[in-house]
Amino acid sequence: MTAPALALEGVSVDRAEVPVIHDVSLDAAPGAVTVILGANGAGKTTLMDGIAGLAKVKSGAIRLDGTPIEKMAPYRRARAGLGYVEQARTTFRTLTVEQNLLVSQSGGGELSTVYKLFPELDKRRNLQAGYLSGGEQQMVVLGRALVSEPKVVLIDEMSLGLAPMVVRRLMTTIGELAGMGIAVVLIEQFANLALEVGTQAHVLRKGGVVFSGPCAELRGDDERLHRLYFGGPPLTTADRDAGPAESERP
Ligand SMILES: Nc1ncnc2c1ncn2[C@@H]1O[C@H](COP(=O)(O)OP(=O)(O)OP(=O)(O)O)[C@@H](O)[C@H]1O
């Protein structure tokens, strides 16, 4: 079995001194997409912030390629190979696409890798990022996380406000990132799209893990997802007849 690129063991994370994440253990394998799901407020972003060093890890261990990082400053975690695409992260609108990528470049990262993944950006290298479409701007945001050649990339709801077709396009690239050997950890509101590209899934409820297993086990099973998100009894027939929740419709 491949050693995990990222390993969390009994991790608890506070937000403004309030405990939010409790005792979370999970791994992310290199060359695979690990999906984190959960309802609004379940603690997904707080968990990501804890991994990246933006929220306080109260207890537990986080290892990046075997090295403990839970006490490192965020910039040192980034240098150690952790990329983070934060929710609602935007571009520098008055800088060109190329300048946006250059400001994030460190070490030996190649812009050509980003242009290969996103030919749309290659054609617009010299255009100010503010003129790009929402999807293209998200490509720049992703590209900025990639130019420092991370081993692990955390991606928090990159699909916010984007059309489903654009989200599908971005998901293809997420799969390609894994194909390059990167361990991708993906939070995504369109659960079924994420489960298509992912290998392992973890569902958070009230700051704890309530499911860990293969994505295939949850794919298309809206009733199970609903129960995992919210707890309680199975959906009624009327619920089922109403179809998937709007947030689940790509
Ligand atoms: N800066 C903060 N200060 C205090 N509490 C916070 C802060 N940020 C988040 N929280 C609380 O932590 C809990 C988890 O929020 P978090 O944003 O991690 O959930 P989430 O699963 O990412 O939700 P969403 O899908 O809406 O982004 C919520 O109860 C939220 O109110």
Automatic annotation (TrEMBL):
Region (Disordered): 231-250
Keywords on record: Amino-acid transport, ATP-binding, Nucleotide-binding, Transport
SUPFAM superfamilies the UniProt entry points to: P-loop containing nucleoside triphosphate hydrolases
The UniProt record lists the keyword ATP-binding: yes
Any Pfam family hit: ABC_tran
Biased composition regions of type Basic and acidic residues, renumbered to the chain: 238-250
CDD domains: ABC_TM1139_LivF_branched
Domain of life: Bacteria
Record field: transmembrane: none
Domain ABC transporter residue range list: 6-231
A GO MF term: ATP binding
PANTHER family the record matches: HIGH-AFFINITY BRANCHED-CHAIN AMINO ACID TRANSPORT ATP-BINDING PROTEIN LIVF
Record family assignment: Belongs to the ABC transporter superfamily.
Protein name in the entry: ABC transporter ATP-binding protein
Species this chain originates from: Actinomadura graeca
